[in-house]
Amino acid sequence: MTVQTETTTRPLTTTVDKPKSISIRRAPAEMVVGIDVGTTKVCSIAGIRKDDGSLHILAHSAVPCNGLSKGSVSDIDATADAIRKSVHSLQEAIGFKVESAYVGVTGSDIAFENRRDDLDPISGHGVITAEDLDRDPKALAESTDEPGRQLIHALRMTYSVEGEDGIRNPIGMHSNTIEVNTHMVTAATVFVDKLATAVEQAGVSVIGMVLEPMASGLAVMTPAERIRGTVLVDIGGGTTDVVGFQQGRVCFTGVLPVGGFQFTNDIAVTYNTSYEAAENAKLAHASTDIPRFGQEVSLPVTGSDVDLRVEIAEICQLVRERANELARLIKIKLDESDIEGLSRYKIVLTGGSSNLPGIAELFQRSLAVAVRRGVPVGYDGFPDELRNPRYASAVGILQWAAERELPKTDAPAPSIGQKQGGRRGLVAGLVKQISRLVPRAYFAAKKGRN
Ligand SMILES: Nc1ncnc2c1ncn2[C@@H]1O[C@H](COP(=O)(O)OP(=O)(O)OP(=O)(O)O)[C@@H](O)[C@H]1O
Ligand SMILES: [Mg+2]
Question: pLDDT at position 45, please?
Fold first, then answer.
């Protein structure tokens, strides 16, 4: 069988169309796997979590995927097929079986709510302890029961003690009550179920779902940016995901159903050419800067034998209009939020479509805020192939996975049902894993990136 992998991280690159002689062994407990199920590709990535909390990436495998529309699974079989190919290829590269993984989730159906809940009574004689903070507010646990929706993350933002807001570490403070401010991200159960079914159909158990743009933020933003207040914009193939970070925590989540697909589709529709020809023309020539007239490209016309000669400047004009429209939609999203000053935050732009030449500069002009491109980079030995914004989510999912408590025994990782009582428990269990988005030793090990 030949598996079309786009990339596989060195030095464990394998030629996947050779006869398979590699024996696949059971993975060590320190191995973590993340799967980014995107609208254009599935990327699975494996790493080893070291004792000092740092992560060593072993290999990755990306294969095209046609099973999603606007970030949501529309064809379970096609999605499962792409995941299976990607995971098989990854297994051959690393020599270990992939039994379970963290899986990225996005889509236009994602919603969020910032909540403030009481956490009481305080156990330790009026002094707030770490054990107090380990509990979840009762009201928050109850609120996850909304019919038809599932909790993806309950991300703890800050605490309020005795009327003082914005406290990040209240341990040791004197009070009998404390309020917890939480960013809750939810998705439609039907969508989460389809994604989980596709992954399981590919033979992999889902340990947890990870919001993709939050993962991208982990991979491409500096801890200082996440603390100061920065917006991550991930322009993928089917969606543009927007996540606001403040004080090191996620405070805003939004998904726009616009991505690279629309840029390509504009070209295809305008010149009555195939999507594939339009995509190739976009990748080869498009820019949001308008070049001089006189350079042309040939596009096949649907239903005709004669190619059309098109000015590249015209293609750039189309792409520029779409980019301006996207910037406008992002501004509306940010303005709509009740987060003070969010639309003035610096933007870090990532995702495959951020490779479009000129788009960061166009966003900077259009939104009147600082914009930089975000590429996963970092510690020594970080694979060159992954230094591309299209891998931001996959790398971030792996980083998130490395931060979570994974089974340390030799026992196989439990499936969703075994572990947490069915699919509804799949993400609800993550409430317990309230995230601290300024990770500990892991990011310390990667100082100096970006
Ligand atoms: N140089 C480039 N210029 C313009 N667009 C590009 C370039 N390189 C990649 N793209 C676009 O990036 C998109 C794919 O990005 P990415 O891999 O981040 O998407 P995805 O994760 O599969 O989708 P999504 O996150 O929306 O579900 C494609 O639409 C592709 O055309
Ligand atoms: Mg993506």
Answer: 96
252-263 residue pLDDT tens: 999 999 999 999
Q: 356 CB under 6 A from ligand 1?
A: yes
218 vs 211: CA distance, rounded Å: 11
Question: Relative to the alpha carbon of 375, which ligand is closest?
Answer: 1
d(CA 177, CA 355) in angstroms, rounded, equals 49
Q: CA-CA distance, 380 to 385, in Å (whole number)?
A: 14
Per-residue DSSP letters for 273-333?
A: --HHHHHHHHHHH--SSPPPTT-EEEEEPTT-SSEEEEEHHHHHHHHHHHHHHHHHHHHHH
pTM value is 0.85
Say how many Å lie between the CA of residue 51 and the centre of ligand 1. Answer: 35
pLDDT 10s digits, 420-445: 333 333 333 333 333 333 232 222 33
**All domains in the chain, ordered by first residue:** 31-108+189-219+376-444 (3.30.420.40), 111-184 (3.30.1490.110), 223-259+321-373 (3.30.420.40), 261-316 (3.90.640.10)
Using CA positions, which residue lies closest to atom 15 of ligand 1?
352
Asked if residue 108 has its Cβ within 6 Å of ligand 1, the reply is: no
Nearest ligand by distance to the CA of 72: 1
**Across all residues in the chain, what is the average pLDDT?**
84
- If you measure from the C-alpha of residue 111 to the centroid of ligand 1, how many angstroms do you get, rounded to a whole number? 23
The CB of 104 under 6 Å from ligand 1? The reply is no
